[in-house]
From TrEMBL:
<protein>
    <recommendedName>
        <fullName>phosphoglycerate mutase (2,3-diphosphoglycerate-dependent)</fullName>
        <ecNumber>5.4.2.11</ecNumber>
    </recommendedName>
</protein>
<dbReference type="InterPro" id="IPR001345">
    <property type="entry name" value="PG/BPGM_mutase_AS"/>
</dbReference>
<comment type="similarity">
    <text>Belongs to the phosphoglycerate mutase family. BPG-dependent PGAM subfamily.</text>
</comment>
<dbReference type="Pfam" id="PF00300">
    <property type="entry name" value="His_Phos_1"/>
</dbReference>
<keyword id="KW-0413">Isomerase</keyword>
<dbReference type="InterPro" id="IPR013078">
    <property type="entry name" value="His_Pase_superF_clade-1"/>
</dbReference>
<dbReference type="InterPro" id="IPR005952">
    <property type="entry name" value="Phosphogly_mut1"/>
</dbReference>
<dbReference type="InterPro" id="IPR029033">
    <property type="entry name" value="His_PPase_superfam"/>
</dbReference>
<keyword id="KW-0324">Glycolysis</keyword>
Amino acid sequence: MATATSHQSIVSFASHRSSSSSSSTISQCLLREPLLNLPISKGFKIHSSLSCNNHTTSKKRNLCKIKAVASSQTETSVSSYNNNTFLSPSKNIPDLSKKKSNEAALILIRHGESLWNEKNLFTGCVDVPLTEKGVEEAIEAGKRISNIPVDVIFTSSLIRAQMTAMLAMIQHRRKKVPIILHDESEQAKTWSQVFSDETKNQSIPVIPAWQLNERMYGELQGLNKQETAERYGKEQVHEWRRSYDIPPPKGESLEMCAERAVAYFQDNIEPKLAAGKNVMIAAHGNSLRSIIMYLDKLTCQEVISLELSTGIPLLYIFKEGKFMKRGSPVGPTEAGVYAYTKSLAQYRQKLEEDSEVICS
């Protein structure tokens, strides 16, 4: 019963997301942004040294390793957290503290099982919710990270990722309220303002971004995976699903998904980590694989074999401009997780002390 109630409340909370019509199937999926005009972030370049497969043309970039090339300092517009406007989405996310830290936590979570995962259908950018199992996975993920600090949350624009983020944060010991920010119109921004400083301090901004959406599967979306393999052949379907730079009919390749996801990460998320903000990203298998490719400096051959389980959080520590992979917390009381860094250990200790004060 409690699970069902949580499920309904999250669906209701996230039901006000905008939709945009377009003559292009891909632009509909990516919410207001045509695929062929996807912006690449300033200072983000992609280098290649080897061809990933024999199908790549000379005009196409052969992305075998993604590297960030440092750009000149970019001006960032920062909103004041104490003014009348609660929060501004995307690049105008408020810095909750002006002091820079040498260290920040980055948590990656693939959404819990969706209704189309359960039915073995190609989902892509079709917006379907979690199953009951997916809700349970999201709650379990939240328990695993309940002692790890989170200052801001990024999700895709799809409900299954947003449900996962909201359900996970409900389990956090700080008991801050995750609030989805709306930038679909000026009216949406105005109507969603919060005017209490105390309430702001007890809230966590949730930033939806279409750039973190799942890879768009084109004409495969909604098809049964097994039936599609029987129709087109297992080798062809495997190539569409697991190659790096070969898209399905009218869809995206992993390479194309990586361009938008990594660009968004560099422009919007990495600066927050550099400023000492602890970030959680709830997204999808392919958009997260793209980001992990960037974080771990994987080749295109390595990333296509990377598998991510639903609802299992991955922890990275960002320190002195470098990302250190720390695996997956198996539980909120696992000592090893908090021994990774001094700041995580101190944060957990503070939570314990606050809990003792409340209990007494």
